[in-house]
Amino acid sequence: MKALIVGATGLLGKALMREWARDEVVGLGSKEVDIRDAGKVQEVVEKARPDWIALAAAYTDVDGCESNPDLAFAMNRDGPVNVAEAAKHVGAKLLFLSSDYVFDGKSTSPYETQDVRNPLSVYGRSKAEAEIRLLEMLPECCIARTSWLFGVDGKCFPDTILKLAMRQPALDVVNDQRGCPTYSVDLARAIIGLCRNQASGIVHVTNAGNCSWFEFAREIVKGAGLATEVHPVSSQQMPRPAPRPAYSVLSPKSLQPYGISLPTWQDGLRRYLEERAS
Ligand SMILES: NC(=O)c1ccc[n+]([C@@H]2O[C@H](COP(=O)([O-])OP(=O)(O)OC[C@H]3O[C@@H](n4cnc5c(N)ncnc54)[C@H](OP(=O)(O)O)[C@@H]3O)[C@@H](O)[C@H]2O)c1
Fold first, then answer.
1. What angle, rounded to 10 degrees, do the helices at 38-48 and 79-90 form?
2. How far does the centroid of ligand 1 lie from the alpha carbon of residue 32, in Å?
3. Whose CA is nearest to atom 42 of ligand 1?
């Protein structure tokens, strides 16, 4: 199998590049291809002639998207449409990374893949519109929704918490948003498994279990052996430009047909802390 990773220089992309052994893999960052440039996308895809394209490139700054919607839709919807067109042209399969933020968070039980999208933020809308366009263009494509991604290769919540916890005796962290933290290494392995299993349609790919940001922060501080106190606060006490869903836990049922299951988020966090320390 030959794979092309678009967004290979990001948090997930770097993990994918390291984990994807045995196959022929080409990885591109924004310097090699700007996904907003349809002609360039066509050129690199034609050159690589991959069996699979894993599309991890995105504008992932959720608050930034809120103040810059044109860039958000250009990057997160129109760019993926360009990649889908190129994939169709060469007969490659496409796996597109999407997000739990396509949901409004009003559910009280884990979201299934077929649940209705109702994004609250520009970022969520841009991802939701991309999903719809891609499924129209390439009904056999695979949309892998993930959430609360962390890893050693980029900015992420555990890294921010650890840096703050080193300098402050106490931290306030929101306790009224619930989701599934996901370790980039575990997500990368699952994505490779999905491509090898010829996956199609929407799948939810997160570490097992769920927590609030407060619970996640408490576990991070404890796992790192720090004495910093972590205090729960409400989202209202810590307003952010983009609204977030209160509950965006994704059900893992869609992975079962592929025989893929991910470890718990606590297990992923333990390995992340080891990797970060080494
Ligand atoms: N992070 C999360 O918590 C989270 C949650 C749910 C879903 N996701 C989704 O998971 C995927 C991976 O996220 P991530 O956190 O790994 O992203 P990331 O670390 O922000 O990396 C983004 C990647 O996109 C590339 N990129 C940026 N602008 C580009 C452009 N105009 N053309 C081509 N490539 C461009 C970057 O390349 P350069 O570095 O070379 O500029 C980088 O490789 C994304 O689709 C994201 O929406 C992430």
1. 40
2. 14
3. 10
> Using CA positions, which residue lies closest to atom 32 of ligand 1?
34
Q: What is the DSSP track for 46-113?
A: HHH--SEEEE------HHHHHH-HHHHHIIIIIHHHHHHHHHHHHT-EEEEEEEGGGS-S--SSPBPT
Any idea how long the chain is? 278
List per-block mean pLDDT (blocks of 10 residues) for the chain, which spans 278 residues.
98 98 95 98 98 98 98 98 98 98 98 98 98 98 98 97 96 98 98 98 98 98 97 95 97 97 98 96
Ligand 1 pocket check for 58: Cβ under 6 Å: yes
Q: How far is CA 80 from CA 33, 89, 176, 249, 252, in A?
A: 12, 14, 32, 25, 24
